[in-house]
Amino acid sequence: MAKGTIIRQDILAPKIAVKVRPGQFVIVRVNETGERIPLTVADKDAFSGIITLIFQVVGKTTALMRSLNEGDFLKDVVGPLGKPADVNKVGTVLMTGGGTGVAILHHIAKAFKEAGNYVIGITGARTRDMLILENEMEYICDELVITTDDGTYGEMGFVTDPLKKYLDERYDIKLVYAIGPIIMMKNVVNLTGKYDVPTMVSLNPIMIDGTGMCGGCRVKIDNETKFCCVDGPDFDGFKVDFEELMKRNSLYLQDEKDSLLFSIR
User: Fold this and answer.
1) Model pTM score
2) Predicted confidence (pLDDT) at residue 39 exceeds the cutoff of 80
3) What's the pLDDT score for residue 206?
4) What is the residue-wise DSSP string for the chain?
5) Residue 259 has pLDDT above 60, yes or no
6) Which domains occur in the chain, in start order?
């Protein structure tokens, strides 16, 4: 799958495919001199040994990954890493995803459905062209609402709009999951907090080694420093310091843009 800058790759990694659970991630290195980047597994097929990764091209490494063809090799794929999502039968769960966060949400929503829950999905993107996994989410969810910022498809607006409607009209929602841009997750948590509905988020801070050694992925949870790679990536949304997370994640945005420009020259 390739939708503009959003790329899907199915990777043969049998040992990871057998062990990986929803919410966990891998760290990928394209070549000997390449950087290591974390990508959460969007799906797996343990029988065929395939894991699915979906990512957006934002820097040199993701641009290099986009250039790979069927049959090419990655230098390293390390995983599964991180703690898996805590999946139980709780009743009605509402899964909200934005952008490429829907890829992560898909694997977790699938697990909640298989556990016997009633799954409501809300997925969104800036435009119709950037929507992903619509058919897959429709298959999993008992109800699915799609939003686009510009109204080119589904309901016009943000995922928080139908989320508020559901929270106003239903009293059986036991859990909300929010995965996507940091500002989206922050807004979801601000909303669900008014209804006192437990809310989990999957965080994506700057990450280097993925094993808790470097401290690059530190996040503040309930005023305590945690390492996303070993303590997460899923956390109680009400305990996340989103302001600090946004500041840390914006530190190298210009470097990413510069590396991408350099890689395509």
Assistant:
1) 0.85
2) yes
3) 77
4) -EETTEEEEEEE-HHHHHH--TT-EEEEE-STTPPPEEEEEEEEETTTTEEEEEEE--SHHHHHHHT--TT---SEEEEEESPPP-----SEEEEEEETTHHHHHHHHHHHHHHTT-EEEEEEEESSGGG---HHHHHHH-SEEEEEETTSSSSEES-THHHHHHHHHH-S-EEEEEEESSHHHHHHHHHHHHHHT--EEEE-----SSSSSSS-TTEEEETTEEEEHHHH-SEEEGGGB-HHHHHHHHTTTHHHHHHHHHHHT-
5) no
6) 2-81 (2.40.30.10), 92-202 (3.40.50.80)
pLDDT tens-digit series, residues 193-222: 999 999 999 998 777 777 777 777 888 899
- Only one residue has tokens 């040199």, namely 60
